Structure formats: C-alpha cells, structure tokens
TrEMBL record:
PANTHER family xref list: TUBULIN FOLDING COFACTOR C, TUBULIN-SPECIFIC CHAPERONE C
Originating species: Daphnia pulex
Lineage: Eukaryota, Metazoa, Ecdysozoa, Arthropoda, Crustacea
Domain C-CAP/cofactor C-like: 104-260
Pfam assignment, any one: TBCC
Name of the protein this chain belongs to: C-CAP/cofactor C-like domain-containing protein
Source species, domain of life: Eukaryota
Keyword Transmembrane helix recorded: no
Entry-linked PROSITE patterns: C_CAP_COFACTOR_C
An example Gene Ontology CC term for this record: cytoplasm
Entry similarity comment: Belongs to the TBCC family.
Length: 280
C-alpha cells in the first residue's frame, strides 16, 4: 500500500470510527444501528487488511474491540432493565409447571435468581431432559436457558428474545424469535431457530440451522457450522410472517467473526455439509 493509499484508508477509517463513536454516545443509544455501523467498519478493515502495515492493523483491531465492548455493555445494561428484571416483594420461588409442558415421567428444575444480574432463567440446571415450552407461555416473552446438559428443548410460539448460556450436548429447536438470539459458553450443541439478529460468544463445536435477516456475529468461537433453517411444521408460514421474517430472505451463511479481520475465510466457522445436516 502506497503512502497515498494509506492516507486515504486512514481518512476513511477515521470517519467510520467517529460514526460508531457518535452512535454509542449519549442516552437512548440504538444498538442495532451502532452494531450495523460497527460491522461496516469491520468489513472495511478486513477488506484492506492484506495490504495494511502491521501496526495500523493492530490499532484498527484494537479500536474495533473497544467499540464492540462498548455496544455490548450498553446492551447488557438495557437487558438488565428489561423483562428479566424483577423485585423481591415475593420471596417464594416461581412455579415453573405453569410455564412449561413437561414430558411424562420427567422432572423440571426450578428457575432461580442470578443475583449478579437480577435475572430469572426460564430453565436451569437440567440434565438428560426433553421439555417443550408451550406457545401460550413463550410468545412475546424473553426465554433464557442456562446450564443445560444432554437435553432437548422444543420452543413453541414466538418468543420476544432468546438467551442461551452454558449449554452442553443440547438440542434447541424453535420457530421464529421476534428480535434477537444470544448465545454464550455453549458446546457441542444444535440450534434450530429463526430471528432478526444472532450473537454467538465463546462457543465451540455447535451447529446452527438459521433463518435470519441480518449477519450473524461470532466472537471467541471455534468449529461452529452453519446451515439454512430446515424445520417444517404446520404453523411455520404464519409464525414467520408474524415475526416479520420473510421466508424468501435468509442470510444464514453471512457470518462476521470479530476475531478474524482477514478477507480470507475465518477458520472458526464453516458451512455444514449437506450430507451432515439433520432432518427435522
């Protein structure tokens, strides 16, 4: 890259960085708009990475990480103030049996408070279970699955948002989610879902069958594989329409890896071969 080209790059980089900084400043930050601007910044750096001096690439990567962290902090703060928040006026544990349809002969682990966040998981501490969350109880609600192992969870209806943390050898099967799906610390699991946005953090050896209208964001992930949503069920067309997801538009293979700024394919994710895909 010549000095003239480098100067042009740095000028454009500064404009893109300033745009993101402006979007995350002040009150009432729109994190969706800020994330889109950050994705544009990340792509711009990725496209120019092969010809950039090493020190400029490191500086750009550092700035992207700081901006991404800022957006995540704002989202976490907003989430704490959202639907998961509850008061301590009632000391009794919630009754999960009214929320879930339990399979015959199986036990459900009661949800408990996570003090550091003030959140209430929908399901927590399950092993070797198969559970269906009924559509009447899931629709327009935030669902949080935490610390599950070797379990299958079927989510009916249209949740408002879906959060999944600390899942091991699980299978999560759902329809559309009205807004976003967030995963963290998941291992060797299968996820079948439709959504507007998806963020995957610190997860390994997971397969995703997605219908999504934006780019997927991954960070600190390894051996994740992606395929198009392939589940067929009677209410599919109606539910996807109600969730504002067009069945003809699917960006399941558009992945932004925040740990990989090269224009070459990230080694942290791949397309799931057709002969390896499960049938639903």
């Amino acid at each position: 890259m010549s000095q003239q080209q480098l100067a042009a790059f740095l000028s454009e980089l500064n404009l893109l960085e300033q745009k993101v900084n402006n979007l995350v400043s002040g009150e009432n930050v729109n994190t969706n708009v800020a994330s889109e601007a950050l994705q544009n910044l990340t792509r711009f750096v990725s496209e120019n990475a092969p010809s950039l001096p090493a020190y400029e690439l490191r500086r750009a990567h550092g700035e992207i990480m700081k901006l991404k962290t800022r957006i995540l902090e704002i989202e976490e703060k907003t989430r704490r103030q959202g639907k998961f928040k509850f008061t301590r006026t009632n000391k009794e544990k919630p009754q999960v049996t009214s929320l879930l349809t339990e399979c015959p002969g199986e036990k459900i682990s009661l949800a408990t408070e996570r003090p550091s966040r003030g959140l209430l998981p929908t399901l927590i501490n399950l092993t070797n279970e198969t559970i269906t969350i009924d559509s009447m109880e899931s629709s327009s609600k935030d669902i949080w699955l935490d610390n599950l192992e070797k379990s299958t969870i079927i989510i009916k209806g249209i949740p408002s948002a879906l959060h999944m943390t600390n899942l091991r050898d699980c299978k999560i099967i759902g329809g559309p989610v009205l807004t976003s799906v967030f995963l963290e610390d998941c291992f060797h699991s299968i996820f079948v879902v439709g959504c507007q946005q998806m963020r995957i953090h610190k997860s390994k050896e997971c397969d995703f069958y997605l219908h999504i209208c934006s780019r997927v964001i991954v960070e600190d992930c390894f051996a994740c594989r992606f395929a198009p949503y392939n589940r067929e069920y009677c209410e599919k067309a109606e539910e996807f329409s109600r969730a504002n997801l067009e069945l003809s538009v699917n960006h399941w293979n558009c992945i932004d890896d925040f740990n990989w700024l090269s224009v070459e394919q990230s080694p942290n994710w791949s397309i799931l071969p057709e002969d390896k895909r499960i049938k639903l």
